[in-house]
## 1
Amino acid sequence: MALSDVIREARIRNNLKQEDAALLMDVTVQTYSKWENGITEPKASQVAQLSDLLNVSTQMICCGKQSEKIDMVDFIRIVSRQAKDLSEFEMIETIWHNIEDDATFLEALKKLNSEDKYEAVITMKKIAN
C-alpha cells in the first residue's frame, strides 16, 4: 500500500476532510492533497505528525505495512509454542527488533516492577497502537 493510500484511508476512517487534516498539520490544502495523490511526500517530521493525527503507526505510513495486533491470550499461546526452544537472549533480541519505541517499552517494564501496574498496562497499550 502506498503512502498516499495509507494517509487517505486513515483520514477517511477518522472522519476528517482534507481541509481539516491540512489545518491540523499546518500545511496548505494543496500540499496535503499532493500527499494523498502521490505527487509529493511529507517530510519525516510530518510523518510523525501524521501518525499522531491519523492514529496509524509511522511504519504503516512509510512502508504501507499495518502493524498486526492479536488478542493477548492468543499471543501468549503462540509465543509459548513457538519460543519454547529459544534462549532468553533470542527472545529479547526478537522483541528489540520488533518494537517501534524501545525507550517507552523499557519504561513500561520499569513500571511493571513498581506499584503502579495500571499505569504500566496503559503504557503498553499505547506502544501497541
Note: The mean pLDDT is 84.
## 2
Amino acid sequence: MNKSDLSTVLAKELNIPLRKSEEIVDVVFGTMFNALAGHDRIEIRGFGSFEVREYHGYTGRNPKTGEKIVVDGKRLPFFKAGKELREKIDESETPS
C-alpha cells in the first residue's frame, strides 16, 4: 500500500472527498517526518514506535580493491513493531 492507496481508503472509510483525505495523510506524515527530524520519538500504541538511532563510523574495506575506507557515522530512522501488530501479523501467516 502506498500513500495514494491510503488516501483512497481513508476517503472511502470516512466518506470524505479524496482531496481532504490526501490533506489528512500529508499532515500526519509531515508531522511524523518533522518529529523524527527533530530527534523526537513517535509511539503509536498497538502499532509500534519510531525513533532515530545513531550509528558510529567505522573503517571498512572496498571488496573489489581491498582498499581501506572510512565510513562516516550516520543517523537513521528505526521502527519497532508493537505487540498487537506483531501478533496480528503472526496470526495471518499461512502455513507452508
Note: The chain has one domain: 3-91.
